[in-house]
UniProtKB/TrEMBL annotation:
Species: Halomarina salina
InterPro entries on file: GHMP_kinase_C_dom, GHMP_kinase_C_sf, GHMP_kinase_N_dom, Homoserine_kinase, Ribosomal_Su5_D2-typ_SF, Ribsml_uS5_D2-typ_fold_subgr
Family: Belongs to the GHMP kinase family. Homoserine kinase subfamily.
One cellular-component annotation, GO: cytoplasm
Residues of the GHMP kinase N-terminal domain: 60-139
Lineage, broadest ranks: Archaea, Methanobacteriati, Methanobacteriota, Stenosarchaea group, Halobacteria
Stated role: Catalyzes the ATP-dependent phosphorylation of L-homoserine to L-homoserine phosphate.
Name of the encoding gene: thrB
Keyword annotations from UniProtKB, A to Z: Amino-acid biosynthesis, ATP-binding, Cytoplasm, Kinase, Nucleotide-binding, Threonine biosynthesis, Transferase
Protein name, entry field: Homoserine kinase
Domain of life: Archaea
Length: 292
């Protein structure tokens, strides 16, 4: 048996739609695999009852098929589905690393990114790499057609997950199909600022760079109380707040020493909007990790 832990991730980060991704230290999925003549899947943990165990409909089944590596696969979900925290990517990344190790296939982590992305397609209908790249490699990743760039910043983060559901498909339907030149220039500038901030582990630059005039406002409208949550987080010490992935999780980058205050402020603001929420006080995490 091979067991792998893969982290939750936050994609987009505001200005980096379908390009930026960030691994979180917590929560995480744990996937165990054993050789078998055909692939079978068992799912336990957060939201397990909503996840299909049919290999043709499950993200890890697609990974096993892509690697030609049939196995009995057990997924212990720590990342809730439809959370905006890369739930399907965490499972796909963990399965890709575990199956590669189980069968001695010898792929690099970079080579496993498109394999895990095939698993994402089973969950969302499209093979995006913005979540699977940080789930595999850790740190902050920039996905392009010709590969992935990665750095490992040191940042304090809060991921606040409200007790509502926003599906990836629904969140994609509200994304504008065009934008103005002014908004394009602003987004490019913010994305560049965020990237420099990641390279410097600078929460102020990262926070400034998370601003996005195009995609985030449309998705924030799907999250009850999002405006109040952002304001409360900033007042408590967050340097930037955005929608994590497709939502509904809100991600905050924090001043050192303010993470607990930011987490409580975000929970209280969701409560004021009549929504229960859970906050993960976290940081930038490692990629998928083999258990000894």
């Amino acid at each position: 048996m091979v067991t792998v832990r893969a982290p939750a991730t936050s994609a987009n980060l505001g200005s980096g739609f379908d390009t930026f991704g960030l691994a979180l230290d917590r929560p995480a999925d744990i996937v165990s695999v054993e050789r078998a003549h055909r692939t079978t899947i068992e799912v336990t943990g957060a939201g397990a009852r909503y996840i299909p165990e049919d290999p043709e409909k499950n993200t890890v089944g697609a990974v096993a098929e892509a690697l030609d590596a049939p196995a009995h696969i057990h997924i212990d979900k720590g990342v809730r589905p439809a959370s905006g925290l890369g739930s399907s990517a965490a499972s796909a990344a963990a399965a890709a690393v575990a199956l590669d190790e189980l069968y001695g296939l010898g792929h690099t982590r970079e080579e496993l990114v498109p394999v895990a992305a095939e698993g994402e397609a089973a969950a969302s209908g499209e093979a995006h790499s913005d979540n699977v790249a940080p789930a595999l490699l850790g740190g902050f990743t920039v996905v392009a057609d010709d590969g992935v760039t990665q750095v490992s910043p040191d940042l304090s983060l809060v991921a606040c997950l409200p007790d509502i559901v926003v599906s990836t498909r629904d969140a994609r339907q509200v994304v504008p199909t065009s934008t103005s030149m002014d908004d394009l220039v602003e987004t490019v500038g913010n994305a560049a600022t965020l990237t420099v901030g990641m390279c410097r582990s600078d929460p102020h630059l990262v926070g400034r760079g998370m601003d996005d005039p195009v995609v985030t406002p449309a998705r924030a409208d799907l999250i009850t109380g999002s405006e109040g949550v952002e304001g409360a987080a900033r007042a408590a010490g967050a340097t930037g707040v955005t929608v994590s992935g497709a939502g509904p999780t809100m991600l905050a980058v924090c001043e050192p020493g303010t993470r607990r205050a930011v987490a409580m402020a975000m929970i209280d603001a969701f409560d004021d909007a009549g929504v229960d929420a859970t906050a993960f006080q976290t940081s930038v995490g490692e990629g998928a990790t083999l258990y000894d």
